[in-house]
Specification:
This protein is of the alpha/beta class. The protein contains 17 helices and 15 strands. The longest helix is centred in the last third of the chain and has 29 residues, at 336-364. It is elongated and about 90 Å long.
């Protein structure tokens, strides 16, 4: 039986279309799922949208639209963005799906029946943008630091979830490595946070209409995060019965940025423990990027939209540029100038130029592609460098270090360029010197391998390059994979 690999992205709020930040996470998940598919594993890649709650209610009102219509329109925009970025997901979950709502209802009934949800009163500062209660010490000058907005004081009769009950158990699961949090610093952050103690949380909202009604008290809707977390189960077709989880369960990797790690590390495992469902294996947490040094925001007018990226660079180059925009665990900055520079350096003058150089020489030599798979014919210098590259690349990919993995490929590209400059095969080709064949064998072999390594990042361009060089003798035009900008 082959391995299974279940990977998820957060489900994004549907108050607007997706921007480059959402695209980054989704591309990351797509790249990992393509790597696992290439290993012939059974892969399930889930993404989707988070449609309920006050944030969406407000956005729909501001747009003067019916909630449902507003969500349908924006869900379509997400799907369109993922389509133009060559994202190949297995399901796109919407929390307004009747099947999802049905399962959420069932789960709530179980939690209520088992005493994990009880009636009480809650008072706290609520940031409507985060859809989260904030502690005094989370605020800076009385404002939510992420949204520069004062939270509203909420005091209401409500239903609470017995989060405190799970504090010890969650800590044990993280410490014991049953729930891995990567990078290590993020894990420590969560352990420190858990060390401060967990309080029960309010999970019902009387004022919010756009949400899933509590089955045992329909005058409330459920806190949007409870509804949202269950997507990771319903996205696999879960009906709400704890024992009925899919064969893909549990998630192997749950990808997210640092902004939502805390809720994921606390409420989500607690819900699963209460329902007696196995926990996810791993949370993989990436940093945030700013744009031209500032928070990406509509009011600043600096939002980078996927469609603008694709228009300028094409789908695959946009994937490449975003995937290499954050080093492992760190934050980063996007700027249009930097993106263009990187496109020209890595893709047009780097990878694209190398391919073109080699294909041109191979064409001049009438190179025979069907017979170039023989490792013995490869120059040792190139063969050794390639082996080292493959090992480093695999290690980086196993550690989820996309930017670093791409770096190993770029070094190999440089090596091949130097090799060409040094060997000057064009002279040998002009003189019909048979030595040219060995050099071309090595170069073509190198390129074949670059294509394999880059495929998860740039599936369409690499498929194009592959079919081009296999039929080189019949190509009427240059490949021009990444035209200079
Ligand atoms: N709806 C919740 C998630 C519920 S999951 C059960 C939510 N949605 S969100 O639309 O705000 O998406 C947050 C996620 O979008 C981040 O965790 C990250 O994956 C991605 N990003 C949004 N902006 C980003 C950057 N500026 N940089 C990198 N990633 C960013 O939270």
């Amino acid at each position: 039986m082959t391995n299974k690999f279940y990977i998820t992205t957060p489900i994004y709020y549907i108050n607007d279309r997706p921007h480059a930040g959402h695209a980054y996470t989704t591309i990351f998940a797509d790249i990992l799922s393509r790597c696992h598919r290439a290993k012939k594993e059974r892969v399930f890649f889930l993404t989707g949208v988070d449609e309920h709650g006050i944030k969406i209610e407000k956005a729909a009102r501001e747009a003067g639209k019916d909630f449902g219509v507003f969500c349908d329109e924006n869900a379509g925009k997400f799907q369109e963005s993922w389509r133009i970025l060559n994202i190949k997901y297995d399901n796109f979950i919407r929390t307004t799906n009747p099947e999802h709502i049905f399962a959420v209802n069932r789960a709530l009934e179980i939690l209520f029946k088992d005493g994990f949800i009880y009636k009480g009163e809650y008072q706290g500062n609520y940031c409507e943008e985060c859809e989260q209660f904030k502690n005094e010490k989370d605020l800076i000058n009385g404002k939510c630091p992420d949204h520069q907005k004062e939270p509203v004081l909420l005091k209401e009769q409500c239903y609470l979830f017995r989060l405190s009950h799970f504090e010890k158990k969650i800590k044990e699961k993280i410490l014991g490595g049953e729930l891995i949090i990567l990078p290590e610093e993020r894990k420590n952050e969560i352990l420190n946070f858990l060390g401060e103690g967990l309080k029960d949380i309010a999970i019902s909202r009387r004022a919010v209409k756009w949400g899933v009604s509590l089955p045992f008290d329909p005058s409330f809707t459920v806190y949007v995060w409870i509804d949202a977390f269950l997507n990771y189960l319903t996205g696999l077709g879960w009906s709400g019965k704890p024992k009925d989880v899919s064969e893909f369960w549990p998630p192997d990797v749950q990808l997210m940025a640092k902004d939502i790690l805390r809720v994921h590390s606390v409420i989500w495992p607690a819900l699963l423990l209460a329902l007696e469902i196995p926990l996810p294996k791993k949370f993989l947490v990436h940093g945030f990027f700013t744009v031209e040094g500032q928070k990406m925001s509509k009011s600043l007018g600096n939002v980078i939209w996927p469609e603008n990226l694709v228009e300028k660079f094409g789908a695959d180059a946009s994937r490449y540029l975003l995937a290499s925009s954050l080093a492992y665990g760190g934050d980063g900055n996007l700027s249009w100038n930097r993106l263009k520079e990187k496109y020209n350096a890595d893709l047009a003058n780097g990878i694209g130029n190398l391919f073109e150089r080699v294909f041109t020489m191979a064409r001049d030599y009438n190179y025979d592609y069907d017979n170039n798979d023989n490792n013995d014919k490869i120059d040792k210098e190139i063969g050794d460098f390639l082996e080292k590259t493959k090992t480093n690349y695999s290690q980086k990919m196993d550690d989820y270090q996309l930017y670093e993995a791409l770096g190993t490929i770029l070094s190999f590209v440089k090596k091949l360029d130097q090799y060409i400059n040094q060997k000057e095969p064009w002279k040998l080709i002009a003189n019909k010197n048979p030595e040219a064949k060995k050099i071309l064998d090595s170069l073509i072999f190198g390129i074949k391998n670059i294509i394999i390594l880059l495929k998860p990042f740039m599936p369409e361009k690499m498929a194009q390059a592959e079919s081009y060089f296999k039929n080189l003798g019949w190509q009427p035009e240059k490949l021009n994979l990444f035209p200079r900008l």
